[in-house]
Amino acid sequence: MTLFWIFALAVTILLYVLLDGFDLGVGMLFLFSRDEPNRRRMLAAISPVWDGNETWLVLTGTILFGAFSRVFALALSALYLPVLVGICALILRGVAFEFRANATRSRGFWDAAFGVGSLVATFVQGAALGALGTGLAVQDSRYTGGRFGWLSLLSILCGAALCLGYALLGVGWLIKKCEGRLREAGYRLFPWLLVAFLALLALVALDAHAKSLRILDRWVQHPYLLAVPVATALGAWLLLGGTWRRRDDRPFLASIGIFAAAFVVIAMSFWPYMLPYSITVAEAASPPESTWFMFWGAGLVALPLTLGYTLIVYHVFRGKVLDSGSYE
User: Fold this and answer.
1) Is residue 252 included in any domain, yes or no?
2) Is 279 helix (H, G, I), strand (E, B) or coil?
3) Cα 266 from Cα 211, distance rounded (Å)
């Protein structure tokens, strides 16, 4: 059961990052658009899927709470402030998404709220990842790092990198779903975002290795592990070729490949630790009775059901966004 739930947790995290990542990215790009028809197309491109995408975050929290409760307690103690800010930002973003459609004089406020909520929610997610990568101060199974123990140069770099990464996913999604000026603007912006994102990823990697040689040692001792991220990154590079030939699905697929490669690198860098470098996966796992109890509900019902309706929604709304805001 431990292996099942760690695999399920990895899948839910990756799907949340990829799916909610692109609609958060569209939200951040919303801040830089001044054309109302384009803004409506941007919202139409994510409106059928954005709230369903966030379901994967709920499932991630559920798995952590039930199957890895020790990590859930420690991580929430350490990251209480960024988690609270992130939840508030997601709420603000959701309210703004609904209100701006019916607003008249206050539409500018709700537009800004939608963009700022997306930006703040993305940054705190990256900052939380950086804090976990740095390692939380844990003593006698209790967090001892203080209110701002999560804040460091690495967490700030991770927050900024995730903002650029989600924006990259958002641009890829808009290219895939839209036509006209919005699509052309996406093609112009995509290479610049890609370069900036990869540059920040390199800075994050350098800072992480400088703080912990254990990460570098793992890859030196097990060089065969490089095959997975290298293969994923190569696939993303090949897909990028479609960007120059204006194949609209390729930028988004290439962005997914880059994120998948980064995800694999992070996971393999810290394995078998679930909370570097304090708690291993085996130590974090809940008792077998709890994990089996969860399996009959969350494992056999919630996960397949969520995956099923996600696939159905993306299939139904697979076409391009028309000028009217409807789908082909």
Assistant:
1) no
2) strand
3) 15
pLDDT (0 to 100) of residue 138:
74
Residue 124 lies in a domain: yes
Q: How far apart are CA 307 and CA 222, in angstroms?
A: 34
Q: Enumerate residues 6+ apart whose C-beta is below 8 A from 56.
A: 12, 13, 15, 16, 19, 20, 306
* CA–CA separation, 281 and 229 (whole Å): 22
The tokens for 299 are: 């494992």
Task: Give pLDDT tens digits for 248-303.
Answer: 888 888 888 888 888 888 887 778 878 777 788 888 888 888 888 888 888 888 89
The whole-angstrom separation of Cα 177 and Cα 172 is: 9
Provide the residue range defining the domain that includes 147.
2-210+284-316
Report H helices in 135-274.
153-177, 180-211, 213-221, 227-244, 250-270
The Cα-based distances of 53 to 14, 195, 201 in angstroms read 11, 27, 25
- Report the number of distinct structural domains present in the chain: 1
